[in-house]
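A reminder from the course coordinator: this example appears on the midterm review sheet, so study it carefully.

Given structure:
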């Protein structure tokens, strides 16, 4: 992984689930010169300061700002070495109802990050993406796909010796905001869990794993790659059983803008994708470095034409017990519920 000691690092959307985990790991492992938390929500920053105090960690800086405002980014990016772009509007129903807002944040905000990074001579930028940006079926996914394209093409604007941009794309994050886990925890008390479709599958990754993947790719990025981790899939029915064993399942149907299965490497980009032991690297169609040289230097195997990395055809699957182990903070509540359920069923 990259050495962040003495570096000036900024994370947009830094008060989110990823930002807080990233902050915890960086403060634990490194001694950066500055770690800047940029977000637009002063309340979330106040709460985050209670957990990560600048008095205890003098490298911390909390900046109020919005990626929609390029002037603010231009000021915030001054003397910054590394930017992690995690800011996004990502609630699918909200994006469908308020379509221009995710476009302003996810697309235009991404463009502002790229321009500010180039203008301020930032060394490296990694943007966080999502499986919903591959073959998107909703507006949120479409904005993330557009943002991915912008960050990949950002290398063309920065030039051969300028800012390097890459993208990290991964699946559903355990414990992140918007996770179905709290919803299932609430509904299990009724004895019935709403299931969209019993065939549904999803990729799953923990917050710590997602941070480690970003840190690893900060080191190996050349610029223009979309990095995809090899992570396990899980069935929605297994998740429901892990959280609420013994509950009935009510099939309510797939919601608008939702997929039955998720894809992280679509068929149409397989010809530009290298497979490694623990990840895939989708190489840019246009780059100032040779893809064959990249292959020779980094290894990997070219994916076959029409290959697809999808949650339903994955080789790695989580069992119900493994899902329980990954759930983390909710594990205690789940174990308590299992004990109560066992007592009830034994009577």
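Designed residues:
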């Amino acid at each position: 992984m990259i050495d962040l000691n003495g570096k000036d690092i900024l994370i947009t959307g830094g008060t989110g689930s990823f930002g807080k985990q990233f902050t915890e790991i960086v403060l634990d492992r490194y001694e950066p010169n500055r770690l800047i938390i940029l977000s637009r929500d002063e309340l979330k920053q106040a709460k985050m300061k209670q957990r990560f105090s600048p008095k205890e960690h003098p490298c911390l800086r909390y900046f109020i700002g919005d990626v929609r405002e390029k002037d603010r980014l231009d000021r915030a990016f001054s003397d910054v070495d590394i930017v992690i772009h995690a800011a996004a509007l990502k609630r699918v129903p909200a994006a469908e109802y308020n379509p221009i807002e995710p476009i302003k944040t996810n697309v235009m905000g991404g463009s502002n990050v790229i321009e500010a990074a180039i203008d301020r001579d930032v060394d490296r930028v990694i943007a966080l993406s999502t499986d919903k940006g591959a073959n998107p079926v909703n507006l949120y996914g479409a904005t993330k796909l557009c943002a991915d394209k912008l960050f990949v093409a950002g290398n063309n604007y920065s030039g051969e010796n300028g800012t390097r941009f890459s993208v990290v794309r991964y699946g559903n994050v355990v414990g992140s905001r918007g996770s179905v886990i709290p919803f299932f925890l609430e509904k299990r008390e009724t004895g019935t869990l709403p299931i969209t479709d019993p065939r549904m599958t999803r990729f799953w990754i923990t917050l710590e794993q997602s941070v480690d993947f970003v840190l690893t790719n900060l080191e190996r990025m050349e610029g223009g790659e979309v990095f995809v981790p090899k992570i396990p899939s899980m069935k929605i029915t297994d998740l429901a059983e892990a959280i609420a064993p013994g509950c009935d399942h009510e099939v309510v149907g797939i919601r608008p803008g939702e997929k039955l299965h998720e894809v992280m490497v679509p068929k149409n980009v397989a010809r530009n994708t290298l497979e490694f032991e623990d990840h895939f690297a989708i190489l840019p169609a246009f780059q100032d470095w040779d893809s064959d040289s990249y292959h020779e230097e980094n290894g990997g195997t070219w994916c076959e034409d029409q290959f697809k990395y999808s949650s339903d055809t994955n080789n790695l699957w989580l069992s119900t017990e493994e899902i329980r182990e990954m759930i983390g903070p909710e594990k205690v509540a789940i174990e308590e519920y299992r004990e109560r359920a066992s007592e009830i069923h034994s009577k």
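The radius of gyration is 21 Å. Residues 8-346 form a domain with the Rossmann fold fold (CATH 3.40.50.720).
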